[in-house]
Amino acid sequence: ATLAGGCCPGASRNRFAYNEAGQVRIRAGLPIYECNSRCSCGADCPNRVVQRGIRYDLCIFRTGDGRGWGVRTLQRIRKNSFVMEYVGEIITSEEAERRGQVYDRQGATYLFDLDYVEDVYTVDAAHYGNISHFVNHS
Q1: Going by DSSP bridges, is the β-strand pair 69-73/58-62 parallel, antiparallel, or unpaired?
Q2: What is the pTM of this model?
Q3: For residue range 42-96, what is the model confidence (pLDDT) as tens digits?
Q4: Do the annotations mark residue 35 as ligand-binding?
Q5: Could you tell me which residue ranges the Pre-SET domain spans (predicted)?
């Protein structure tokens, strides 16, 4: 869909990143720019998917094979749908290296590299986060 009047046309090349059902419709690897406080559109704008937060019923559970905790869905998730945002503290990659050594000794790590453009920052969900902290990466 082409952006309606009042939405942010510049960053998105005049196209929404999502279809009417909120599923990503652009090529993988491209950044997604959502409408925000600079737009004149409202909270019901279809280009505000992540901002609406988690829309699926999710459950934290203890794995049966000793890998710790995990997250599973209690309902079917449509392909290319937003599930959750990985929330945490943004730190430098250097700090992530230091913390990673400590976390490795503790047997758990919650580091997620932000390497879209450069490998400069990392998200650490060890102390600040949401349910994404329990997503099993192994």
Answers
A1: antiparallel
A2: 0.75
A3: 888 888 999 999 999 999 999 888 878 889 999 999 999 999 998 999 999 899 9
A4: yes
A5: 3-53
Q: Is 59 among the annotated ligand-binding positions? A: no
7 is in an annotated binding site: yes
Q: Which two tokens stand for residue 103?
A: 């976390």
Residue closest to 24 by CA, chosen among 83, 76, 73: 83
59 Cβ partners below 8 Å, 6+ apart?
71, 72, 73, 74
Alpha carbon of residue 68 to chain centroid: 22
